[in-house]
Records
---
Amino acid sequence: EMKNKGKYIIICLILGIFLFIINTLNDAGEFKSIVPHFDGECIQIPGVSGAEDILFLNNGMAIISCDNRRKTLARFSVQGSLYAYDINETSSKLTNLTSSLAMDFHPHGISVFENRNGKISLAVINHTQEGHFIEMFELQNNVLVHNKTISGSLLVSPNNLVLINENQMYVTNDHDSSSDFNKLIADYLQLANSNVVFYDGENFSIAAENLAYANGINMSNDGKIIYVAETIGKKISLFSRSINTNKLIFQESIDMDSGIDNIELDAEGNLWIGSHPKLWTFTRHAKDAEKLSPSQVFKISKMKNDGYTVEEVYLESGDNLSGSSVAAVYGKTLLIGSVFEDHFLKCNYTLTQP
């Protein structure tokens, strides 16, 4: 009888592990079918490595955050760069804005704030061997001037950030630990243990907690809403800001059913999001460039009744671009970047009405 009970326990454990694996794969989107589509044409723009984040300035110039993350993962890091890319120029050349920067530089998420006088402040997350920092620049005549380095104990695993003025910002921590092992466990168990912190110009404080891999972050054009991408949670969470405490007050979530990454806004206030429809496949792509990871772009539009519509604008298997992380729009030009590729996409797309 004891032997039979032991066999029963073993069978239950095996079955439980099997069901856990199947559920994890399903949550990661591994059983999705990829049917490529896009109403437009795209060309590959070479000359970059890991164009993970892209944004547009008001004048149509794109700023691109690049780092060779595979070499960094292999403990053989190469200096990263911020590039300017002007879509208005016929040549559309890439200009390295940080070629003379005298510091260890591995940029991740970026944000800009353009004031009424035309001053452009730029903040970028920098991952170095010494730790995680935020570098502050001012863009002057196509030249980045480094102003200061910001550090803090709450910058545990910073991913992205959004400037709300020249000196203050919200920053996402995608995990509550800097340990690779702890991050791995949190990801596989789908733990909601990440947060958003606020920098008031001098100190950091926690603004929102219990997020499932807080990733991309941005602010509505009127400054009233903060959007946070929860990659493992597969949703966009919307927060209002407390004027007194700068805490983020949860309002609602938009279910995306995909591993969403960075968030950009167009001139009309629509959200554009690069996403990973198959997260498990993306982790394999991170280790091996030959293993393609699907790319996906969403557009989220606000409706008159305060609801939102979600449109899948772009989807492909990864042949043209693997591991899309960002989609930035200016006019009819759509730029799609990725975490590891040696190029990004420049696309002309057909405008659709929500």
Note: The first strand starts at residue 40 and ends at 46.
---
Amino acid sequence: NIEITYFGTPAVAAYNVRQVYKDLILTITIALVTITLLISLVYRNKRTIILLIAPILYGFLFSLAFIYLVKGSISLIAIGLGSIILGVALSYSIHVLSHSFYSADTEKLIKELAYPLTVGSITTIGAFVGLTFTNSALLQDFGIFASTNILGTCIFCLIFLPHFLKKETAESSTIGIRAINKINSY
């Protein structure tokens, strides 16, 4: 009758890595599914959903590329916390797409959105850059990841996204958009 048990930092660390990975996949999946469902209810067009999510994916890849070039590695926990950034980044593409319903042409759209999106992204990026001055490696990683993610999303929204927009009017929009416009009119 022999009972073997193990204890110590290596065992705990191995378990923590597995748990963080599972939690990372779970949080990002829940965030993406929730966001996609909500967007699907408002924008019932598959092309529109792709246009809303493309800037987020670009921002994510931009951030990972930046971190790889500058730092070389990042904490998985920081990427898991990045699911918070999905909602913030999504607001940029929603703003551009919604504004396109009321803008006469793409050039006018860019002129009208360049200043507010740039200022909004600079303030958000500044808040996340502040995390890089902490003593926590996790918060530093999250600050770099979040700030470069927002930067990449904003770049995509201002430079690339307007080229993919078709001219649609608010009148031809879905019931969800008309409901939001009705609420806003009050």
Note: The two ends are 76 Å apart (CA to CA).
